Structure formats: C-alpha cells, structure tokens
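Lecture 7 notes: from sequence to structure.

We start with a single chain of 127 residues. Read the sequence below before looking at the structure.
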Amino acid sequence: QVQLVESGGGLVQAGGSLRLSCVASGRAVSTKPMAWFRQAPGKEREFVAGINRSGGSTYYTDSVKGRSIISRDSAKNTVYLQMNSLKPEDTAVYYCALRDRSSPTSIYYRPLEFDYWGQGTQVAVSS
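Now the structure, written as tokens:
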C-alpha cells in the first residue's frame, strides 16, 4: 500500500508564492510517475503538473506554465510544487497523485491514469 501526504497549502495574497510538498510512503515509490491536480468548488479535478520517473521530464497545464515548477527528491520520496505569482483562480484543493502500474510512457495527466491519491491541501489566493 502507498500513502501520499500533502502539505504546504494556505492563504496567500495574489502575487505570492507557495511550495506544496507530497511525501510518499509504503513500497518503493521513488521511481513512479507523479503529478499534482487541483479541484475548485463545483469544478472537476484538473491536471496541474506532472513529473516522470527520473524527474528529467516535467509538464504543466497552460494556466500555470511559467509560474510553477514541479520537482522530486527521490531520496526523500517527496514531490514538490513551487507556485509563484499566484492568482485568485489558483484557489483550489491540491492533490498529489502517483501512478503505480506499468508506465510505458512518461506523460500522464488524466486522473484515471493514477492509482494513489493524497488527502489534499487547500490553497486560497485572495485578491
């Protein structure tokens, strides 16, 4: 079994920054594809950023591209999401996700492609 625990959310003013962390525990997870999603009230869960097994490839949804950086520290089984220049529309619950099944490609961005999820961390951006 794999457990994912997010932290780092909070209330921040527009233009501010936050760094979200996701610690994975359980079986060997340091080489699994991972991603961040978010879900705002009344909206579907949407992909934010993803990182491949080695950490050498990253990808972002257009709305956060250039403002966010996803990274991973395999020794700590941790994935980070650094978010800068935050906007009110970034307000959502942010979820960490891990893909445990076979991963023939490096790019995964749909919720059904991931096997484990964290409990979420709230990000609120005030204008």
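The chain has a mean pLDDT of 94. Keep this in mind for problem set 3.
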